[in-house]
Design goal:
Elements lengths: L1 E6 L6 E6 L6 E4 L5 H8 L5 E5 L11 H8 L2 E5 H7 L7 H5 L10 E3 L4 E4 L2 E7 L8 E4 L3 E5 L18 H14 L5 E4 L5 E2 H7 L5
Parallel strand pairs: 3-4, 4-5, 5-6, 10-11
Antiparallel strand pairs: 1-2, 2-3, 7-8, 8-9, 9-10, 11-12
Length: 207
Amino acid sequence: MKVNFISSGTYASNCYLVVSDDGTEALLIDPSVSYDFVFRQCGKIPPINKILLTHAHFDHVLCLDEWREKTGAKVYATQPESEALTDARKNANLVFFGLNKTYNSADETVSDGDVIHFGNNQLKVLLTPGHTLGSCCYYDGNIAFTGDTLFADGGVGRTDLYGGSEKSLVNSLTQIFSLFAPETVIYSGHGRESTLKEELRNHKTVI
């Protein structure tokens, strides 16, 4: 699969457009960037039928409504994050801006171990609570989209917002480091890409 990295420039949130190997379908992970901007960056792309959320904080769903309207794509998230979309306190719009900004809930809820198919590829769901109650990663044997659970250069997501838990985050990091191969490329919610091997060195004091 081909991973197109697009940074919003707003809140430094990362968005990923992932195209299947056979070129028949694409999916979007964390729609923090506008529809028009993505198409300017990536050019002609196949149909986008699925939008995957690693979690529902406002900075990762900035353009969710626009993408839903323009593509008709279904939104996938864990149950806690689907609920957070509809609650301004849980999605942090109320906390940061005093705004009662909400979104429609997910069309499909995912659980640990679920598999999402697109084109001739698939991504598996790994539940990784800690940054939020229902944070998750999407991965295959070579890459992992870790949202705000795991960053490059030793970074981890904050745990002081609704549903955050330092203990759960440490458990999730331990799970990631034990499950993924060292060569796995890490695409996170903020910052540059990395590899699990590199982050194993950076996170020795965390796990």
